[in-house]
Amino acid sequence: INSDKSISYKDLFTQAKQIAFALSNKEITKDSYIPLLIEDNFLFIKTVIALWFFGAIPVPLNTKLLDDEIKSILDDFDFKFLVTDKETSLNLHKKDFEVIDLIKIIIADSEVNSFSFPSINSEAVVIFTSGTSGRPKGVVHTFSSLIKSIENGNQILMHQEKDRWLASLPFYHIGGFQILCRSLYYGCTIVLPESLKTDDLVTAITKLNPTHISLVSAQLQKFIYLGMKASKSVRITLVGGGFVDDELMFEAEKLGWKPYRVYGSSETASMVTAISANEIISKPQSVGKPLNNVKIKISDDSEILIKSNSLFTKYLGDEKETSSKLINGFYHSGDLGFVDVDGYLFIEARRNDLIVTGGENVNPIEVEKAILHIVGIRDVCVFAKQDKTWGQIVACAIVKEDNFINEKMIKETLKQKLTGYKIPKQFFFTDILPRTSLGKLEREKIKKMF
Predict the structure, then answer these.
(1) Three-state DSSP class for residue 236
(2) What are the start-end ranges of the E strands in 284-431?
(3) What angle do helix axes 246-254 and 217-225 make, rounded to 10 degrees?
(4) In angstroms, what CA-CA distances link 263 with 39, 90, 140?
């Protein structure tokens, strides 16, 4: 449902079958990975279900990415198709590649009853997340791992068929994709805002009365700044995707949002721990206790290890990275933390210097490479700075060789190479950046310098 129209699940599945029939004529086969670059929420949902009908695996792409960033992903993973609903200037004139425009394909009433869903252990989706080398990682989940995450989370979400889930996060993130999957699994209504802009979210919340909401810190911060009270319909608001300030949780509780701070990742199929605002009073800065069927262990070097029936199966096309992260049934998160005597988890440092700004993951290595391509810059270190609105912001320290280099010039150049949220918001210019004897940036030391 959105402000203009609604569709029943029966009609949704009928239309999805029609799209499946149209796509089957494009030689998309069972078990093939199909990247999706789709802005329209209704069309995205129908296309995902259509691919599931004949056993293909949707690969949602971040719709904020620039053409060159999209091309890089398509080339790196050797995808054969791109399904889209948006105008794209992608120069993809390869014999083994096809762009399928959903607006142009003919979707007619057809005999499509032969389609059926794949088995529960089949691969269901690939969610991209930032990799440590700058190359995105494709996190592969099965229907089973998605469903187990949904069932584990129901410990606090307590779904009923009459519930209404606000699609308040982008579907190309695991948090947003699981909103779709939870709604499908429990037969809830999916509330689709016109966009994820604050005004459109406010309109959807006040007029369409969702019971369940999932937000990143920056979204909730904007509501609190507006002094916005939650609709009486709201039963729970999940808040995650990076650092979430205690005071923000307390303010949200006062305004009726019933917030739970949650911790998880693409690899865990969303949240694996949760804590209410009331619990935070006695456990400040904790991300909560493990959900059902989740076990958390802290390694000798303080890394958070997670065991659950909701873990991903592999990184697409990367056996080495998979085997380094999935060891003896535990996912090695790269995050550092501890568990207190009462079983509450605390995060002390986020994984591999990844920056989480407004719920978007930014790999500092990728941003550094783009900055170093600018003539006149000798050295750079990109890092996170804590921020109450965004959770974190992207900052950078730069050693320049030429005086004409300045913040405005760097930002304008980066706009041609990086999507907006990856471009640093704070710049520091310095004469030297400390490095180890092996030449590696001393990132923690640089963070403390600035």
Answers:
(1) strand
(2) 286-290, 294-298, 303-308, 314-315, 326-327, 330-339, 345-349, 355-357, 360-362, 377-387, 391-400, 426-429
(3) 50
(4) 27, 36, 19
Residues 6+ apart with CB under 8 A from 206: 231
For 396-422, letters b (16+ CB in 10 Å) and e give: bbbebeeeebeeeebeebbeebbbebb
Tell me the mean pLDDT in the region 16-37: 89
Residue 53: pLDDT band with limits 50, 70, 90: very high
pTM of the model: 0.85
Tokens in use for 246? 């205690």
- Assess whether pLDDT exceeds 60 at residue 112: no
Tokens of 341: 């005597």
* Structural contact between residues 276 and 314, judged by C-beta atoms closer than 8 angstroms: no
Tokens matching residue 317: 């096309």
Total length of the chain: 450
Average pLDDT for residues 222-249, to the nearest whole number? 93
**Which tokens go with 241?**
């995707």
Any residues with CB less than 8 A from the CB of 114 and at least 6 apart, and which? none
Token duo for residue 441: 């940036």
Q: Give tens-digit pLDDT for 225-238.
A: 999 999 999 999 99
Distance CA 154, CA 151 (A): 5
Strands 123-129 and 81-84: unpaired
